[in-house]
Amino acid sequence: MPTLRIINGTLLTGGPNHGVLAGDLYVRDGRLTHIGVVPPTADETLNAQGCVVIPGFVQSHVHLCQTLFRGAADDLELLDWLKTRIWKFEAAHTPESLRVSAQLAVAEMMRGGTTCAMTMESVYHTEAALDVVAESGFRAVVGKCLMDAGDDVPAGLRETTTQARTESARLVEAWHGQAEGRIRIAFAPRFVLSCTESLLCDIAALARENNVTIHTHAAEHRDEVALVERLTGRRNLAYLHALGLTGPHVGIAHCIWLDEAELAILAETGTHVLHCPSSNLKLGSGIAPVVEMLERGISVSLGADGAPCNNRLDAFTEMRTAALLQKMRRGAQKLTALDAFQMATWHGARALGLEHEIGSLEVGKAADVAVVTLDTLHAAPHPDPLSALVYAATAADVRHVVIAGRVVVRDGELLALEENSIKAAARKAFADIAARAALG
């Protein structure tokens, strides 16, 4: 693998020892070997003049399989959004359409400085998304969606408990650690309302036996919480905890409607919250109590969720929105630019169990790096580069992106995938899915 220098930038290191310094980075064999003062030559050099150099963003909750549905499920609340649109679209996927959806998502995220994501795919065709991750150079924790129960589930999403358990275990065997370690597999029960108790208990046991992450949703909408309580006799988080689906290996998306006891469960178990502020606003679900979570020591990271409930897969949007929402809730001094930046990088890596590999600029870690220009009208004069990154910069300001030491975006051009062909394929693939789903 070629050696690489990134020079003349301002480094925002992230991580528990976050610092801001002028200096360069050096990459050998896919890893950061020097920070600050670096060897004078390399096979390739990226100039970061006028830019901040940051650990690549880690989005802890996305759905690659839903990207084709962007703009086709607007103005609906969660359960109607799922039942009248998203489940029907997902059920109409083929391996070919899911591949295009994943390419569209990965291209957008890499172009915007995201180097790693945890994604929940649909019930079938997950290997199409895994192929895209492997081929593109992206880093991801990928889970096959598990759904062995639920009302109004279309035939194309139905599976038995045995099928759900067996196929997830097979994906772990076939894919966990592949693509030079860039791919990991998660167990991904969709949410309580789509999974039997038997399946949830099985997954809790399998995850611990195989040292695999669990990725699920909970407490996203008040109607969902009420249905779970009616079905199980417990609130959402309390029910998952009783079945063994909490702990440092568990990431739970949303967690908006929690009581004090449930917040205590998250804190005591080390369970990760995957916060999706734009999605929560667009679906009218609510605003998660992020400040209260952080005050209790709960790990909170960021994700865009799916394109049809956002509609961007943009870490810059999520950082800014997360900070502004909490300032509105708890005062202007809450959720600082540093808090938001750490949620988008270091805490994302922690949620995926990858904090020893990515999430900060440290010698020995994988070289997952984004270079973002601040030499723009909308960021000038940027006396505080971290403030400019979180509150002013946009995805269009990303100049270079490196994943595992390989340059995937150079001078704003996506190298790993061909943008125009993906856009054309996406238009055709969505038209075909809409026809199969009998939706306009």
TrEMBL record:
The keyword Nucleotide-binding does not apply. Transmembrane segments: none annotated. Residues 52-408 form the Amidohydrolase-related domain. Pfam families: Amidohydro_1. Gene3D superfamilies: Metal-dependent hydrolases, Urease, subunit C, domain 1. InterPro entries: Amidohydro-rel, Metal-dep_hydrolase_composite, Metal_Hydrolase, MTA/SAH_deaminase. The keyword Hydrolase applies. Keywords: Hydrolase. This is 5'-deoxyadenosine deaminase. It comes from Chloracidobacterium validum.
